[in-house]
Amino acid sequence: MRLDPVYLVAPEPEKPTLRLSRRAAFGLAAMTFAGGIAAGRWLIPARDAQKAPPRFDDPELAWVRAACDGPLDDLVARRHALFGTALGRPEATASIAVGVQRLIDHALAHPNDARCKALARELVEV
After folding, report:
1. Would you place residue 49 in the very low, low, confident or very high pLDDT band (cuts 50, 70, 90)?
2. C-alpha angle 72/78/79, rounded to 5°?
3. Can you give the pTM of this predicted structure?
4. Among 84, 41, 50, 49, which Cα is nearest to 64's?
5. What pLDDT score was predicted for residue 54?
6. Under 8 Å CB-to-CB from 99, ≥6 apart: which residues?
7. Which residues contact 41 (CB under 8 A, 6 or more apart)?
8. What is the DSSP code string of 24-85?
């Protein structure tokens, strides 16, 4: 008479493991690092080309630079035209950002002034 073993619970199958030596893992990491450096060197000039300074050859945009760099009272007086230019001319955004930052600083410096509160509301809407 022959007795065969009886299992009440089936044994778990062995999990397949990835057999990768340390040398191969280090080589893979080194190749990934070198590939990242190569991609970075290729992409950085493209990123820097996008940060080119705005050109003010257009006479419509020349006043933007004059208003942003000029006296603050003139900038506050022409803020509606500045906001309209910001919405209508996306290429002038970099130059308009300087003027908008000056307006924000002015509004934050005088929080109790009624004109500055109105200016802050306009800046939030834009």
Report:
1. low
2. 85
3. 0.49
4. 84
5. 52
6. 64, 67, 68, 75, 82
7. none
8. HHHHHHHHHHHHHHHHHHHHHHHHHHHTPPPP--SHHHHHHHHHHHS-HHHHHHTHHHHHHH
